[in-house]
Amino acid sequence: MKMDITFERVESRDDIAALAVLADQIWHEYFPCILTEAQIDYMVKKFQSAPAMEQQIASAGYEYYFICKDGTRVGYTGFVREKEKMFLSKLYLKKECRGQGIASCAFEFLEQECKKSGLHAIYLTVNRHNDNTIAVYRKKGFHTVKEQAADIGCGYVMDDYVMERTVD
């Protein structure tokens, strides 16, 4: 049976509120193997709360989309179109929806969005200890271009690889 994967733009305050709930759920089911609960709580509040995402959309150029499978919201993506590249800030799926080809559909969507804007690459940051996700990105053609550590406050540091792939 073929899945129907669609992308629903997050635009209203209600959409943002629903996205914040989804983000909180996904982060708390995925990241405990990499981060402490305290750091997850801090990062969700700082980057994925409704006020944070409202600000990102209003003044930092972010676009968020729900990823829907057969009409049900199963994940989300967030990105910024920059001068020559797209910064893929977020791409998350609910646990039960991973490994079904949905991420591949999301990458096709992101590539089309790049092409619409004349962008030639997608880049992202990923936690250096997030081995499963790094493997997925490599399979999708991303390669590591540098390492970075970013102090995000309250004694927390994002210890990441920056990965990039060109868009054909």
Task: Explain what this protein looks like in three dimensions.
The protein has 168 residues and is α+β, with helices and mostly antiparallel strands. The chain contains five helices and seven strands. It has helices at 13-30, 37-48, 50-59, 102-117, 131-139, and strands at 5-9, 62-69, 72-81, 85-93, 121-127, 143-153, 156-166. The chain has a seven-stranded mixed beta sheet, sandwiched between helices. Strand 3 (72-81) and strand 4 (85-93) form a beta hairpin. Helix 1 (13-30) runs antiparallel to helix 2. The radius of gyration is 15 Å and the shape is globular.
How many strands, which pairing sense, and closed or not: the largest β-sheet? 7 strands, mixed
Number of helices: 5
Helical percentage:
25-40%
Task: Give the SSE order as H and E letters.
Answer: EHHHEEEHEHEE
List keywords for this structure.
single chain, 168 residues, alpha+beta, 7-stranded mixed sheet, 5 helices, globular
Short recap of the structure:
With 168 residues, this protein is α+β, with helices and mostly antiparallel strands.
Topology:
Blueprint: E1 5-9, H1 13-30, H2 37-48, H3 50-59, E2 62-69, E3 72-81, E4 85-93, H4 102-117, E5 121-127, H5 131-139, E6 143-153, E7 156-166
Parallel strand pairs: 4-5
Antiparallel strand pairs: 1-2, 2-3, 3-4, 5-7, 6-7
Helix pairs in contact: 1-2, 2-3
